[in-house]
Model the fold of this input.
Amino acid sequence: MPRLLLLVCALALTARATTVALTDATVGQLQAAMTAGALTSEKLTTLFLARIDAYEKSGPKLHAIITLNPKALDEARALDLERKTKGPRGPLHGIPILLKDNIDTVDLPTTGGFYALRDSYPPQDAEQTRRLRAAGCVIIAKANLSEFASGAALSTLGGQILNPHVLDRTPSGSSGGTGAGIAAGFAAFGLGTDTGGSIRGPSSANGIAGLKPTLGLNGRGGIIPLSLALDTVGPMARHVADLAAALNVMAGPDPRDPATAAAIGQLPADYTAGLKPDALRGARLGLLRDFMKQDAGVDAVTETALAILRAKGAIIVEIKLPTFVLGLNSGLYFAIRDPEFKTQVEDYLATLPRQDLPKTHADIVALSKKITEPTPEGWVPNPNRLSFYEREKKAYTVTDQPYLSALHDGRKIVRDSLTWFLAREKLDAFVVPTASRPPRLIKDEGVTPPHTIYGSTAILANLTGWPDLIVPAGFTSDPTLPVGLSFIGPAFSEARLLALGYAFEQAHPARALPVTTPALPGETIEY
Done:
């Protein structure tokens, strides 16, 4: 009898349901719940819409969302029916996501956050939109952003985005709406774009994971450009495994983006295959300490993270970059970005079918100047972005030698120098705090900080075209603000970076649901 009782107890334990909170569930767990019949895409979408309703329309009013998809529930129901009749398309079938509102959607406006593009419907989906729809994702909403993906986390159309951890702090730009929205639990994952830190800053500031991929790993066709020499598009999520699952769909060729030719033969079969808790054992990581010593709280979190990396078997190598490389890092970004934006945004505007929309950079400047105070429609002034527009007007052109030297010679110097350190020290990746300081007060965000020779850590990965993975590392105190750790590797090393980041995340889970966006009733999922 005792043996039979033990057997019954063992079977009961085996059959015990898995329980997970909506705001902590991985994409894999959500998919398992749907496979088990314990969850539907319609129910999942309803739960996320309820959170958007609670924390966008009321509650803290994060201003993370510009446009809700009015057909999201219809699309979810259709995907549920397809699952029943044909089976799931893959691991992302029925998963609700956010798209940054500079990524084209044929059925929803794509605005760049600019009020004059509020009714702009592009002629076709962006390549990334097409891929994610084909994988079975539900686009639940378009996320607010820094206007035209640059400047403070504010747009004339969507307003000031708030950091859900501490509401008077910036969520960082430019993918601030995606970052705040994913941290607040508005979708399973989202897409951001990154030209000089625009995925990584919001990932760090909002305490989530994010990936700025290798330039050319995946297509940018149908995305409003800021600077095509530097632009990338990547996933932002609560878990590293979700980044890998998204990248499996996102990576690959794009007929509208010649840069993706570089990825031929470089993509693994499955970015999730190497996600193992022991992946840090024997890894050699180069610490870029030049970008520390600017905030004691950030440095303290970073030192704890480094101790955990060592405890899991990683070898930390101190790297001192040459002063001239740091100087180039601080100066090259705008030398490339400003000439390219004023030319390339006009190329994008020319593709829009409506003739009453702005068509030139000069049109954007003139229309921006018209918004001097909040309007009855809810549009708000954006003096920070307007100052950037004015600077762009005075920039070199894309045929001028200073721009060409920065584009070709300057980037090569930075890339060659970092490549040399990787080879000499036999490094798997560089590590560094994603942001040297915690998120700034919103009231100070439009104030340009004092110039330093170091520049931004994030810009290194844009100038080289390399991938940069962000993993939550912990929180500062007083106030409690997230800190992210960056893993920067050579071109097309995403699989290795994801493995390293996953192992760190498993050893040191440092993500927390923001206090301003707590769990709602009925969000527990059992399967």
Notes: The first strand starts at residue 19 and ends at 21. The chain has one domain: 19-252+272-520. The chain has a mean pLDDT of 95.
